[in-house]
Amino acid sequence: MYNVYCRELGIDLSNKTITTTEIDEKVFEDYIGGSGYGTKRLYEETDANTKPLDCKNILVFASGLLTGSKFFNSNRFHIVTKSPLTGILGEANCGGKWGEAFKNCGYDALVLKGISQEPVYILIDDSKVEIKGAEYLWGKDTFETDDILKAKYGNDVEIACIGIAGENLVNIATIMTDGEHGRAAGRCGVGAVMGSKKVKAVVVRGENKTEIADPEGFKMLLQSLKQNFSTGVVPQVRDFGTSGGVQFCEEIGNLPVKNWGQARWVEGAKKINGVVMADKYLKKRYGCGRCVIRCGRTVESQYTSADNLVGGPEYETVGLLGANCLIDDLSAILRLNEVCNRLGIDTISAGGVIGFIMEVYEKNLVTPGDLDNIIPIWGDAIAAEKLLFKIAYNEGVGRLLGAGVRSAAEEIGGEAIKFAIHVKGLEPPAHDPRAKTSTALSFATSNRGACHLQAFTSDFDEALAVHGLGVDAPTDRFSIDGKGEFVARMQNLMCLFDSFSLCKFLMFAEIPVDALNEALNLVTGLDMTVSDMLKTGERIFNLKRMYNVREGIGRKDDILPERLYINLRKNNRNEEAQLNKMLDDYYEFRDWDVETGIPNESKLMKLNLA
Question: What pLDDT is attached to residue 568?
């Protein structure tokens, strides 16, 4: 098979051993790479008794079968582990330039085991692998760490590292790449797992350019698809970034406002959208490796960086640290985004926990004394920044909030539970499930907790088509008919995206499913049909579900927080009944037991998961 090394690099940090394992090619046919391969390894190496931050948990970095090719937006990688935030399957996907650099070292996956006794970093320089002391890096933020290591090894290395939050085992800590540009493997506390293993960074530089099975055919395919990126919503995303949609999302009820408890925020949304960012703050656009969209924003630094330029906030950050906290000063949001990137904090979870504590304080459930005398009133960006530093250093109120909203609400007790917005322990991204029924079902059934990317339906209800998946026209965003099948099919497809590993913004270009299948075969030499490929996506999703079933997850957990059942614009509570009907349809389509939400044995047999 081309473009696959069939090699896993294993590092046991407890005894400093480094091993290379040959992987059977059949594994890649069954699980593709990236998310699929990482989930398989996690299922094999851990069990229900594994604690996320102990030595038996593993941290998997995995590239995909299209990583290292010239396919559009393919320079990504996936991280899989048991999440300290949720206690179940944890995964995060990241762009930037690290993924291809790692693939070019001659490996498809890196598996970190055990715990080092002292801080270290991993150096993978082509085929040479070393474990190096990192005491001098411990305590540095992610920008500083990137600068120091590039000064040592050269600007051609790529670095994935943790910040202060990861070192302090904060449950909402990230793994960051691309230095000041701030590309994040943000969700599920993967940075805390890396910190628990005392690994500060993974530095990679590879010279092994991967082969393409059919170079001429692949070149022709790329040429035929180029025009897809010049029409539709792609130019808008390119010009204004993902936050260009803030006002539209507010108009249709998709933007979280005031800890998901306020119906409208018209004037606020006008002040913080991507058009304003482009007019006032944008210095240049940034794109991850192999990107043809370049939605990343580069803005002037609020601190001091090498060229005074840093990565700007995306829609999720603007939505959660902005609208969800009623912060309508875009320059303040830019600063909060940089603070999170430097300290290594997930901006989505950060906006969730800060919005939560603002409401809990407003409801007099906590006092200033409980909060280290920080007064978190709505819209106060200075208070929000103080809380971020407390979270990163795991001090005082930061210890409470850094554990996530579910844990914080349980510790505060009483009515605080009402204001903790999460699904399975994960704070939601900035897409309100009351605006689109498919989002509600996606949040409820996502394997890592509330997530719009594991089904990516939020942009397709009344917006875009998915050619080759049986969704050739946009769906009605308020209808529940057919949404069980729609969400399940999209989840299977997104498992493939995370395993290839591709940016999901390719969907904005309406790339047909059969073109993805053709790319897979041309790059790797496989002879997979579209049906086979989609079955592989289904296999990966079901394996993730079975990992969580082993952790006790079932239908009882496929729910939304009470607040998100109450439609503030319609003043009704029919969302819960709608979700239950969609869940019935969803389980039936997936061939899962409708009462328990557990895959039936017959389904597992068909997917070779028995």
Answer: 86
CB contact at 8 A, 183 and 175:
no
DSSP string, 512-552: -HHHHHHHHHHHH-----HHHHHHHHHHHHHHHHHHHHHTT
Nearest Cα to 586, choosing from 546, 543, 555, 544?
Answer: 555
Question: Looking at residues 123-150, what average pLDDT do you find?
Answer: 97
pLDDT digits (tens, 9 = 90+) for 264-296: 999 999 999 999 999 999 999 999 999 999 999
In the chain, the amino acid numbered 323 is A
Coarse DSSP helix, strand, coil percentages of the chain, rounded to the nearest 5 percent:
45, 15, 40
Rounded Cα gap, residues 387 and 292, in angstroms: 37
- Compute φ and ψ for 553, nearest 5 degrees: -80, 140
In this predicted structure, the answer to whether residue 571 has a pLDDT above a threshold of 70 is no
- DSSP category for residue 296: E
How many CB atoms are closer than 10 A to CB 331?
15
- The Cα–Cα gap between 230 and 239 comes to 12
Closest-CA residue to 207 (of 273, 125, 287): 125
pTM: 0.97
- Single-letter amino acid, residue 189: G
Task: Measure the CA–CA gap between 575 and 585, rounded to whole angstroms.
Answer: 15
In degrees and rounded to multiples of 5, residue 539 shows phi and psi of -60, -45
Instruction: Determine the Cα–Cα distance for residues 544 and 89; give it in Å rounded to an integer.
Output: 7
Give the angle subtended at the CA of 84 by the CAs of 78 and 90, to the nearest 5°: 30
Helices (H) and strands (E) in the chain, counts: 23, 15
Q: Is the separation of the CB atoms in 366 and 412 below 8 Å? A: yes
Task: Show the CA angle centred on residue 150, arms to residues 117 and 138, nearest 5°.
Answer: 30
Burial letters 198-221, b for 16+ CB under 10 A, else e:
bbbbbbbbbeeebebebeeebeeb
Q: How many CA atoms lie within 13 A of 536 on its CB side?
A: 25
- Cβ neighbour number for residue 609 with a 10 Å cutoff: 18
Element (H, E) at 103: helix 98-103
Quote the CA–CA distance of 299 and 327 in Å, as a whole number: 19
Could you tell me if 103 and 9 are in contact, meaning their C-beta atoms sit under 8 angstroms apart? no
Q: How confident is the model at residue 458 (pLDDT cuts 50, 70, 90)?
A: confident
Polymer length of the chain: 610
Residue type, 566: I
Amino acid 440 reads A
The answer to whether 186 touches 427, Cβ cutoff 8 Å, is: no
Structure tokens at 145: 């760490």
Residue-wise pLDDT for 211-222, tens only, equals: 999 999 999 999
